[in-house]
Amino acid sequence: MRLQRDVRTTSSSRKMAAIGVAGIFGVMTLMPVTMAGNTRHEDRISHERVINRAKVENLQRWVSAGHADWCKDARVVAAEELWRLAPDYSGDGFELAAMVAGETGGNRVTFEWAPLDGRSLYRVTVERFDWLLPIAKNTESIVWVPSSTEILTQE
Fold this sequence. Notes:
By secondary structure, this protein is of the alpha+beta class. Helix content is 41%, strand content 26%. It has 2 domains: 1-39; 42-154.
C-alpha cells in the first residue's frame, strides 16, 4: 500500500512539473506578442547649427554696446530658441524638465522642456565661446548662442 502512495505522489508531482514547464513556455511564446502592444514609436529630429563666427562676433559687439542684454542669460536664449521651434509655446503649457551642464566647463548647457501631455521633449543646447572674451571683456558678458536642437516625439 505504501508503494502505491509513493507512485501516486510521484505521478502527480510530475504532472504539476509538466504543467509548470508548459506554462513557462507558453508565457515565453506569448511575451513578444503582449510586449508589442506596449511599444511606443519615437521620432527624433535633430539639428546641429553651423556657427558663423563673424555673425556671433557682431552679436557680441551689439550686446557689449548695451543692447539685447538677455543674450547673456543661457535659459532665456534657450527659451527663445524653443519659442522659434514650437510657436505654440507658452510658459504655462511647458515645464522645464532638466538643465544639464555640458562638458566644456560651463560654456555649454542643454535645457529640456516637455509639454504637460508628455508626448514630446524639446532639447536646446546653448554655448558661449571663449574667442568672444576680447570683445565681451569678462566671462559673464559673453553671449549664449543656440548650437543644437532636438525634438523627441512619442506616439
